[in-house]
Amino acid sequence: MAIESLFDEDHLIPIALLENTLFVFSSLDGCLYRLSHQTPRQVGEYEPVCLAEIESPFCVPGHPYIYDLVHTASLVTVREYPLTATGMASPRCRAYEAPPKETHQLTSLIPDAAAATLRIVFEPTAPNSPCLFTDVQSGITQPLETVRGTPRCVLSDGTVVSDSDGRWSIGSDANPQGHGDGTVIATASHFVIVRMSDKSGIWFSMVRTAGESDIEPPCGWTIVSLAASDKTVIAYAIHPKKGQRLLKAEPDNLTFSLMDSPCGTSQVFGMGAAFEPVVRSTGLLIGSLWQTQRTRLPGIAFAKNNLSLEYITPAEVPCVYVRRKESRANEIIVSLHGGPDSHELDDLRYGGIYWDALDAGFDVLITNYPGSAGFGAEYQEHAWKNWDAAVLQTADAINEFAAAKGVSGISIFGVSFGAWMGLQLSRHVKTRRLVAMSPLLNLTQHIQLHQDEDHNFRSWAEERFTQLGEKSLNGERYALACPVPVVILAPERDEIVLPASTQNSVLAATSACRQWTTITVPGNHYPHTSAEAAQRWTVLSNALTTNEC
Asked: Are 216 and 253 in contact (CB under 8 A)?
């Protein structure tokens, strides 16, 4: 497989940096690629690194090696492949004594800051047996006191940090140093970064042997992604009025300052103790790019210099307004994200679909309706059990914007829960059409179905929604009340919204002589393969950019 699309690039994880060459692993195909900046070019080219001879590959972010760790009988064979600017060099091979496969399973390779080495982790297959560590350089194996979960690293003082099932712990069961909620996402010599999340938001903390400290962003900002090295903490954060920025701090004081770096929507990846985190950013102006402590590497998508982008808040609703520099369009596409506990700002979602809309003569208004996450608890919770008010505030924002810009035509694009919001908005905004992808149309039925299957979903729904009706068919009144043409992109294997529910809403609308069209697309609620994504984005582009109602 080659990296040929934003969907492919979205699934890349950086593992090592050598000078101006970045090595990335694909979670789609399990392959290794390298991206370099050896010659000037506008977009990056990912060259595959052959792993065909490697039986069981392991790596540790920031370490420029691929390890082939093969556990057979009572031996572990270690083949250490150095990464080079042109790929991989010949391996250094050795074999060490190892616990029998009947009693222990080789599960991971972790950094040990105390011994300045890497440890092979053998977890016991039977209860009350110790976990074993093998030094990848010397082959010395030693037992580890029982820990809660899977070991993630050894800190410089010899303390082991583990996590499992959304809980972290530091120390052993016999000598516990601390524990709490969250998952270890980045390791350094003296601390780890822990991420906690639920549908209400994301939180980060720094865990040391001495204790846990919450990581607080500057006032008004919300951290979305974060990683750290021994010397630097880098975060991607959003703000309802100021948009998106990268933040930087020192681990010892965690006082963040704004970085002067390109920043659309970003992911921050930890690269171990010695190297600054790597940032991947995507945006309508910057395209896609990787930012490292040494250089910036262009990604798969071109940067655009013919577009204008503004963060605006009509009716106090956080929006992103995008248009071409040379002219302002008379028609806009209003985009509504799913969730509702989510957000969208400057990004290249759906394969960069907004570029197609801009090229077709539309402006784009990315809209974060009340109930969106990331803009403060008050804004998110304002919509709970008060969705009529959230719809009206969003309608006020769109109408205020349209009046100020002299917009003559408005199309609404809603994804998942955003499609339900679009149905409501069509009664308050003069809309030409609604394009609904993976749509949640019958909210009543959706809640009633899932709350009986999932206790967590029930709690989530009860916190956000009032009782919407005794009968599931009540939800179809929203379809009947929608006065505009609707185009539905319905995944054939949608595991979130039942296809039958979507079909029933469409049938109710068409039976009432509403102009609804359904296009079936392959895949799940969100595409799982490159082919599914490419086909869906093509259908979506045609639906959004056509002038037919």
From this structure: no
**Rounded Cα distance, 6 and 27, in Å:** 14
What's the CATH code of the domain at 468? 3.40.50.1820
Query: pLDDT by residue (tens digit) across 471-491?
Result: 434 556 777 788 899 999 999
**Are 325 and 372 in a shared domain?**
yes
Is there a single domain that holds both residue 268 and residue 379? no
How many other CB atoms are there within 10 angstroms of residue 174's CB atom? 8
If you average pLDDT over residues 293-315, what whole number do you get? 93
Same domain? 504 vs 371: yes
User: Is residue 218 one of the residues assigned to a domain?
Assistant: yes
Which helix (H) or strand (E) segment holds residue 12: the answer is strand 12-18
Q: What is the largest CA-CA distance in the chain?
A: 76
Domain closes at, from 234, 266, 298: 298
Residues 314 and 290 in one domain: no
- Consecutive H or E run containing 71: strand 65-72
Asked whether residue 287 falls in the same domain as residue 370, the answer is no
Q: How many domains does the chain have?
A: 2
pLDDT tens figures, 428-455: 999 999 999 999 998 888 887 777 777 7
- Is there a single domain that holds both residue 260 and residue 368? no
Q: Find out whether 67 and 137 touch, Cβ atoms under 8 Å.
A: no
Phi-psi region of 354 (alpha: psi -120 to 50; beta: other; left: phi over 0): alpha
Is residue 44 over pLDDT 90? no
Q: In this structure, are 236 and 324 located in the same domain?
A: no
Cα–Cα nearest to 255, from 235, 281, 229, 227:
235
Please say whether the beta carbons of 173 and 188 come within 8 A: no
Q: Does the pTM of the predicted model rise above 0.90?
A: yes
Q: Do 293 and 312 have their domain in common? A: no
Compute the half-sphere exposure of residue 164: CA atoms within 13 Å on the CB side of its CA: 8
Q: Is 114 helix (H, G, I), strand (E, B) or coil?
A: coil
CA separation, residue 250 to residues 220, 222, 247, 256, 336 (Å):
20, 18, 11, 8, 37
What is the spatial distance between Cα 156 and Cα 243, in angstroms, rounded to a whole number? 38
Residue 44 contacts residue 300 (beta carbons within 8 Å): yes
Which residues form the domain of 240?
69-82+90-298
Q: Which amino acid makes up residue 94?
A: R
